[in-house]
Amino acid sequence: MTKSARRLGILLSGRGSNFWAIHESVQQGMLDAEIGCVISDKESAAGLALARNADYDALYLSPQGWDREAYDRRVVGELRNRNIALVCLAGFMRIITPYFVREFRHRILNIHPSLLPSFPGLDAQKKALDYGVKVTGCTVHFVDEGVDSGPIIVQAAVAVLMGDTVESLSARILQQEHILYSQAIGYALDGRCRVEGRRVLIANEAETDLSKT
Ligand code: GAR
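^ thats the input. predicted complex w/ glycinamide ribonucleotide below
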């Protein structure tokens, strides 16, 4: 398989810790991939600065003055120009349009800080805490036309502890996110995910479960 078949496009809006975890997995040889570009809709995103400092091809695409689909057409154009095989939403706080989903069908992943379908949308950790669940976690899924609704690739559970605040719970979930995302990316790049309706069947799942290393 050529390297471009393993080229990632990372989309982010904020801190960029998931992007950085993917970067480290690649650097450490745990994930056979190449980060082909990092795109942000926020000029001030810390993740964009991280990407620039690490000499990635890092682009700020301002959404101002563009309708949602026109914006996504620009993003898709930039991804295509760079032969991106897989798009990873890593704290990208825009809902992407059906056009984008169609162009990269089953080639866009998202990470979300809850056990979907519980607590989609913003502030998932606070919603879990407020609801009183005892277990929450994180999910990596293929992106479809809905919000946090696509077929689930992997999930990790995190216990809610008695003294938890939104911050402490979010921090423990984030540790799991950083492991889980690279694992899911590996599955997708290796062509091991078969989507059957809502289910994602993963070939030989036990062999490369990074959470068990
Ligand atoms: C992560 O917790 C991610 O799961 C969440 O935003 C955070 C981004 O952090 N994404 C969503 O809530 C998407 N619905 P990061 O910028 O440090 O990777």
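Residues 12, 14-18, 47, 90-91, 111-113, 124, 148, 174, 177 surround glycinamide ribonucleotide (CB under 6 Å).
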